[in-house]
Amino acid sequence: MKKFFHTIVSLCFLSGLLAPAAPVFAEQEKAPHIKSQSAILIDQKTGNVLYNKKDNKKMYPASITKIVTAILAIDSGEMDETVTVSKNATLAEGTRVYLNEGEQMPLRKLVEGMMVNSGNDAAVAIAEYLAGDVPSFADKMNEFAKKAGARHTHFVTPNGLYNPDHYTTAEDMAKITQYAMKNSEFRRIVKIKNLPWHVKGWDTTLVNHHRLLWDYPGTTGVKNGYVDKSKHTLVTSVSRDGMDFIAVVLKARTSREAYSDTTSLFDYGFSHFQRQKLSKGTLIEDPAGKKHALKEDLEVTLPIGEKVLKNVSASGELTLKNSVGDSLAAVQLFQPSPKKEASQVAAHSSGEATGSKLALQLTTRTALFFYSGFLMLTALMVMIRMRNKRRRALQRMRRYEKNYTFIK
Prior knowledge:
Layout: H1 2-18, H2 26-29, E1 38-43, E2 49-53, H3 66-75, E3 82-84, H4 87-90, E4 104-106, H5 107-117, H6 120-131, H7 134-147, H8 170-180, H9 184-190, E5 194-199, E6 202-207, H10 212-215, E7 219-227, E8 231-240, E9 243-252, H11 255-272, E10 273-278, E11 283-285, E12 291-293, E13 298-303, E14 309-312, E15 317-321, E16 327-332, H12 338-407
Antiparallel strand pairs: 1-2, 1-9, 3-4, 5-6, 7-8, 8-9, 10-13, 11-12, 14-15, 15-16
């Protein structure tokens, strides 16, 4: 027996050595070490997440808030309208473009000054022009955030100056930036490196604060930020070799750390990922074996060499997934016929009814079994008791007969 046991253990050990190892994805092995407290890398075109670190942690955004202020101004359709700067705007703290009370300039110029030189005064002037006051503009910002899919974000100011109720996440800022980068005017503004600036008392050329516009090939924007509570924040977009990425890093200890983390994320994206496209007209098979033509192009971003997994539900939805089961894209492939849907519902209802009936039958049988057992046990106990009673009666009778014989 002992020899047999050792043989089994040896076979198990050998099978473990000979069995193929579980797949380890290269992107997990070689993912960059990010020092910023929160970060995310997405494909700008598909929105697929390629890297994340605490991407849903609420953080203070600082001046990357101005991405929202800029796209709201652009979407207003009033970029050529003239804005009169209020005294309140000129009193904004932090980085400014030195606007003067009563000064007039096009809304477009204010947006450019805000994004290139991070002018907090320009952000307030924009907010007051578009909504009347800062709190009303903040309401517009929050409405926009929901529209962009930012579920864990709340804005209070148009410029990102610290407020405990002014927060976002890396994931939300990536979604907001993805929306904004679809706008050609936004893309033009955030790519400006140098901007001639002429206001009363200040004649200069503004230089964009985002250093990767010079230092990382393919960078197309977007915005950096800093306040003491948020530390260094950075949102960057890059386009190169047919790929377009957006990286967000939040709460880096230094600007160098923010830039280093961002370039590491981009290097990782370019070296490990590629897009795969399912073209319009591609035939996709449903669970019943019937093929349906794709009605539109679908693109997803996957690790290089990995194949997309296709899943078609009974309701006709096609979902594209990666090897670990993450959903990358979904589209309605076909509409099931009403008759088929009705039969599925009926089958489901029938199944539920059958299941309920079987459960009831099982419960009844179980109850009968225990009740029968109880009756049998009770009857047995009664029989034993009666037998013992008769035995004691017989013993008493025998003692009585014995005593009677002796007396006689």
